[in-house]
Amino acid sequence: MANSKFEYVRDFEIPDPLLPNTWIVVRVDGRAFTKMCAKYNFQKPNDRRALDLMNTAARAVVADLPDITIAYGVSDEYRSARADNKGHINNLYNTSFWTLIQLGGLDNKEAEKTLAGTVAADKNEILFSRFSINYNNEPEMFKKGSVIFRDYELVDPDSHNVTQTIDSLAEPITQSKTQKENDKKRRAKARILVEHMDIIKDDFWDRRPWILSNKPGKIPKET
């Protein structure tokens, strides 16, 4: 558009600044996911190949963009924010639903009717009593999704004032260009982990204060 008759539109552009210390959450949803699953014959409700593919792609994005603090994957989407207990509830339902169809011979409507009004304990009982499936033995990735973050030395929660860390986020952070470059280098040196763990409980955040503070932690010593 530069040096063209449409260049005048730049006169109407206005700045769109972001508030300081504001978390930016990006949701990356699946595109044509159903077609892709059909093409590669991914199994329902979970297929390790598909999940590994998404985790690999998400890890590459985190590695390429040092400013990304944390990402987590649930179903066919990735987000950069906290997860809730929904990936778990949905997976238990989906596991029960597709087991009733694939192993129980029910159609979709019959499976839905069977699960209507059931709670988690009921679904666990259906899986175990009818199909000898112990849901607790399902892979953690299926039950809890995936979380991706940079690996620094874990912090002892008893020696770390979490409240002070969170409160400090309300204060603008002013860094020199050198400080910003140093932080970027430290992030680049950190390993990027793909874990399947509970990030709802405080322990995950208390032991990793760098996630909320957005300041790189201490690189673990190689053993």
Automatic annotation (TrEMBL):
Entry EC no(s): 2.7.7.79
Cofactors named for this entry: Mg(2+)
Keywords: GTP-binding, Magnesium, Metal-binding, Nucleotide-binding, Nucleotidyltransferase, Transferase, tRNA processing
Domain tRNAHis guanylyltransferase catalytic: 6-79
PANTHER family, per the entry: TRNA(HIS) GUANYLYLTRANSFERASE-RELATED
Any one GO molecular-function label of the UniProt entry: magnesium ion binding
Domain named Thg1 C-terminal: residues: 87-201
Entry similarity comment: Belongs to the tRNA(His) guanylyltransferase family.
Protein name (database record): tRNA(His) guanylyltransferase
Enzyme class: transferase
GO biological process: tRNA modification
